[in-house]
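One-letter codes give the sequence; the integers encode the fold. A sample entry reads:
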Amino acid sequence: MKVGFSGDPKTIWLSESGDDRNMQIVEEFSFTDRRGKVWTASEGSIINGASIPEPLWSFVGSPFVGDYRRASILHDTACQEARSRGARRSADRMFFQACRAGGCSRRESILLYVGVRIGAWWRYKYLLKEESVRPHLMKQESDKSLRSLFAMTAEEVLQAGETDDIDELEKLLDTLELQMEEKALSVLNATQLSFEPMSLEKNNSNDEDSGFLEESHSSEMLSPDHLALPLAAEQFYQANRTKSPCGEEDRLPSSDSKQFPHSAICYLIMKKSFGRASRGTGFFISPDTIVTAGHCLRSGFGAVKSIQIIPGRMGRDWPFGSVMAKQWFVPHQWSRGGDIRFDYGVIKLSSPSLGEKTGHFDFGVLGEDELLNTTITTSGYPSDMELSTLQHFNSGPCESVTFQRLAYSLDTWKGASGSPIWTKQNGKPYVVGIHNYGHCPNRATRINEQVFEDLNRWVKS
């Protein structure tokens, strides 16, 4: 039996209350796939393009335009009839084949297939509340989350090569789906991923993006009270506050932030274009280099225009004053693709004088056996504490180690993004991770060989 469509679909728009998105099939329409199965949109069927998630339309296009229009109609009806996840997956397989038969390129068909697979997975997994599809000026929170997850996954699929083999594609998506849990939680809980063009200047290297600003010193550049400032991890995803994210509360305020290592941990204020700002945490790894999470430096609406650093801040007490950043860097894998494996970066100062006063952390690569179940400590500026401008710390075991991540049940919260995760080596604090994601267990980017190489290069730059 020949693969292809029975002809062209015949539909009418329905005028109804609400969003007026529905169309009705007025003549039976079908597609025969490679296995000889006939997929039918029966006369009277109601379709609305919902099988292609609306937040992805700017990536893959809206359902009723382009060479995938016929495929979209049949996918809609197949999804409505699917009563199991397996049936939905079969409908997605058909959709890819129908896109190709309708004239879509391999690349376009792959992107559309990834879109419907992720859309289905997202709904099954998170059951997000329905948001209006009417025109709106600002991207809604679930829109940005889904777009971010799609972009990360689609990039990985395309890197494997463009193929017509739906079995190969499905197997690859099945493998990636096992990794989506961490990606989705990362997007939901800590990032403000966006793929808006950024206006940061670039240096002469193609390996990282940087922003530039002259450095200046002041303890009164901004009011000491910044409770109204949003968090670098909060501008994307609004979660309910909870007093103790991971069980019994065990965080304590630093007793003396003038002493190392707490003196080397910084309260960060990132000002963006259009007058926006956010706050987070960072820490010194050399007298003129501060590490933080990548999503503190590059993400969200508007480019970071300036960064104010307040080392050892304890509420209204700024023991070392403050300093403005000279330039900042993130890996290109983060700035251009939002790859959570590279969610880290550094801030450079024009002078080492401040870091010489505060002290700085040693950092390095430890083996899995050395890390697993060892006692780790973190300290930063979590926003759920009564006064989030006080530095809080806690310690506990490292529960899980992968090549790229550390996991632990230490209480953390938004605002602590970019905090150091350290253990002791020869009696001294030794950073092994950069905290950036929370969902119990909370997670850090592990300092592996790649991260170590990047940080060392930035320290020497």
The chain has two domains: 4-189, 203-461. The first strand starts at residue 4 and ends at 5. Residues 126-141, 187-230, 233-244 have pLDDT under 50 and may be disordered. The CA atoms of residues 85 and 120 lie 9 Å apart.
